[in-house]
Amino acid sequence: MQPSPNMFFGRIALKMGLLTATDLRDLLREKSQRDKVGVPISIGELCQMRGLLTSGQVHDLLRSQDYLVSRSEDRRLGALVIANGLAGEDTIQRLLARQKEVFRAGSDAVRLGQLLIGEGVVSEKDLCGLLAVQERLDRSDTKEIPPPQPRPAPPADLPRAQLVQVAGDGLGRVVPMGVVAVLGRNPFHEIPIAGGGVSRQHARIDFDPARVGHVVCDLTSRNGTFVNDVRIEEPVVLRSGDRIRVGEAVFRYDDLGSGASELLNCSSERSTSEVLKSETENSTGAMPMLSPADRMGPRTSVLANRVESRGDARPPRPSPLYERARKKDSRAGLPDLDGARRVYRPNQAIRLPPNAPRATGRVVCPHCWHEFKVEDTLFIAAHPDLLGDPVLGPEAPRRFPPSRFTPSGNALDAEKRECPDRACPRCHLRLPLPLYQAGLVIVSVVGAPSSGKTYLLTSMMWELRRALPVSFHLYFSDADAVANAWLNSFEECLFLATRPQTAVYLRKTDLQGETYCQIVLDGAPMSLPRPSLFSLRLMEGHPRATETAGSLSRNLVFYDNAGEHFQPGMDTESHPGTQHLLRSNAIFFLFDPTLDARFRARMGERTDRVRPEAGARQETLLGEMIQRIVKRRGPSSNGRVDTPLLVLLTKFDAWADLLPGDLPEAPYRWSRGASTAGLDVDVVATVSLAARQLLFECCPQVVWEAERFSRNVHYIPVSALGHEPSESGEGAIVVRPVDVKPWWVSVPLLFTLAQFGLVPILEPTSPDPTIPEAVTTWAQEMLVVRVPETDVQHTLPASFAGMTVRCPSTGRVFRIPGAAFRD
C-alpha cells in the first residue's frame, strides 16, 4: 500500500536531518488529535506553527513530497504499460530518468503519462484506460473500502467568535471564525487579503482544544503578523478585542460567546448589519469600556498569552536587540525597568490635551522660511518655451505673479497654459498644495556625522505610516512626493526589498546633493535644505474628529542635514542650512553612544561589534546648535525655551543591557472603550529618567547643555535597525533588509504629537492611593525631586511634572506633582 503524503514528508525530513524521530512522532500524534476534533492539518503546517521548519524548508519538502508521491504512482503505471505490451522496460526507465532530471532542474515534475503521450507510446484513450485500471488496483489493496464518512462534528466548546476588519482594503468585512482560517494573499484562503505587505500564506488562526480558544500564529511571513501592535514570534491565544494586523489590513477579534452550531451553519461572511443584529440579540449586558489588556491589571505584553512550545519544538531565534534587551543589569540597586509597567492601572482612560496648535492663516515656505500672504504666491509656467528664472537659473520654468485664472483657481501663463504648481515669492522653489491647507509642525533632526540620522528617519517614517492610521486614526501621507523621493527610495530599500537577503546600504547625507536646492538670491549663490513634507489629517475614528478637521490637520516638515552642518563655523549666509532650528516646533538631537569613548568604556567587550568614527565631540555639536539658536533669537531672550528637545540615544541594540530591565516593545496600547490607542506617557517618562541617569553618568555635558536650553527635555533610546550592520569587502556599512527590526523609532514623534494634542494619552481615571507623591521644589526653572522614603534626589526639567515614574536607582514608583502637557 502506498504511504500517505504526510509519511513521505516525514521520511524526507528525517533523511535530511531537519526533524528528529521524536519531532516526527510528536507531530503525528498532534495531527491525529486535531483530525479527531475536526481540525485537519498537514505535517508541514504543524512544523511551521511549532517553529521547527522555515517556510522555505517546508516548500522544498513539499516539492520533494509531491515528486516522490507521483513517482511511486508512475512506477506502477509503467509496470501496467509493460504488462500490456505497450512499451519495453528500457523505454519506461528512460522516461522515468527524464522525469528525475526535470525535477532536479527545479521545474515541476512532469508525469509519466504526459511523457508517454508526448513520445507516441500510448494514446490518450489508452492512458485513460490504464489509469482506471491502476485506480481499481489501488483500491483493491485496501482490505475494506470504508463508506464515505461525514465530516467530524466540531467540538462543543468551540468559541463563537468573529473577525471584523477595521482597517485596510475590505473595511467592515465580518468573518465568522470556525476551527481553522488561513490569512494571506491566496484568493482561495478562508480570509483572503489584498494589498501590499501580505504573503501568500501569511498567518493562521486555529481552534486549540487544550485551551478552548483560538490561537493565531505567523506562517513565517516576510513582514510579520502583529497582535495589538506587537509582532508575534510564537502562537498567541486571542482574547476578545485583540487587534490582528496583516500587512495593511487590521482585524478585531470578537468573542461572542460559546456554541459552535450557529457558527458553522452560517455563511463564510455576513454583512455588518446582520452581525450587529446578532450581537444585539445575544448580548447579555453592556459592552465593557476597557480592553482585555486593561482588565488584566498590570500592563502586560501580548506575548504573556503565548502558547508554550510542546515536545522538542525549537523556539524561534530572537533578534539580537530583543535578546540583549532581556539581559538584566548586574549593578546593585538598579531595578528591572519591566516593573515600570506596574505604574499602569486597569482604570486608565484616553484623554487628549487641549493645546493643539492652530494655523496662522499665512503660508510659511519650508525652504527659506519666508512667511507670506496667500495672494503673494507665484505660479510656475507650464508651457515648455517659458524658461528662465532669475533665482533658479536659465533652465528652470519661469515663475510669475498670476493675473488670469481658470474656474478651478489655477493660474494661466503667458501662453494660456493652466499652471497648477505654486512657488515661494522669495526663493521661487515649488510649494505643494497641502502647505496652503494646514499649518506646519517643523521637526529638526540634529546629530553628528555617522550618528544614524538617515537610517533613523527612514525607519521612523516607515513605522509612522503604519502606527498613526492604524492605532491613532491619523492619516499620514506624503505632502510632496517629489521632495520625499529620496526618503521613499530609502524606505523601499530597507523594507520593500525584492531580495531581502541581499545586503544594501543607504547613502550618507552630504553637504550638497538631492537634499539641497541651489538658488541665487540677491545676486549671491545660496544652498537651502530640501525638507521632507508629510500631511497629517484626522480620520473618522479620531477622538477629536468632531472638531473642525482643518484646524487640527498639520503638515509635518522634517529636516535632515548632514552632520557636518552642525560643526562650528559651518553656518554661513551662503549655507544657512540649519536656520530651521529657530522655527522648529521640536528638535530631535541624536546622541550615538558608540561614538563616545566614555560610553564605549561602559560597553566593554561589546565595542568589538561597533566601528567608531572620528569626528567632533557630540556635546560640542549640541552646544553649537544651541548657540546658533540663541544668537538668532537675540540677546534679549536668554532664558530657557519651551520647544521640546528630545535626546535620542541611537543604536540601542548595541548597548541595550546598560539600561536596566526590559523595555516594552511599544509604549502605547489599544483601548476598546475609546476605539483608539493611547500613548503611555508615564512609560516614556520612566524610560527617559533611566536613560538620563545613564547619560549623566557617562556624558554629563550633554545633559547640562540640553537642560539649560529647554524646559521640555526627554531622553529616548531608539534603534533604527535593531541589530549591528556588517561591513562589506569595500569597507561600506551594509544591512540585510530581512534583519531590520526597528525599536521605538516612532516614539519621539508620537510623544511630540501628544504634546500638541494630536495623539491621545493614557492616564488614570482616579488617583492611585498606593503611589506616593514626591516632595518637589523649584530651583532656576528645574524640578528638585526627592524620591519618597529615600534620600535619593533628582534635578529634572519641568517636563517631568505630572508624570508617574519609577526611580532607576531605588526602584520606587512615585508621582511628580504638577502638570506638564496634560492640562
Which key phrases capture this entry?
823 residues; alpha+beta; Tumour Suppressor Smad4; 4 domains; 7-stranded mixed beta sheet
Describe the structure.
The strands form 13 sheets. This protein has a 7-stranded mixed β-sheet, with helices on both faces. It has a 6-stranded antiparallel β-sheet with strand order 2-1-11-10-7-8. The chain has a 5-stranded mixed β-sheet with strand order 4-3-5-6-9, with no helix packed on it. The chain starts with a helix and ends in an 8-residue tail after the last strand. It is α+β, with helices and mostly antiparallel strands. The chain folds into 4 domains: 136 residues, no CATH class; 131 residues, Tumour Suppressor Smad4, CATH 2.60.200; 73 residues, no CATH class; 372 residues, P-loop containing nucleotide triphosphate hydrolases (Rossmann fold, 3-Layer(aba) Sandwich). The protein is built from 20 helices and 41 strands.
Distance between the termini: 77 Å
Number of strands: 41
CATH architecture classification name of the largest domain? 3-Layer(aba) Sandwich
What count of helical segments does DSSP give? 20
CATH fold assignment of the largest domain: Rossmann fold
| Beta-strand residue fraction | 15-25%
Structural class per helix/strand content?
alpha+beta
Helix content: 25-40%
The overall average pLDDT, rounded, is 75
Rg, rounded, reads: 32 Å
- Count of domains: 4
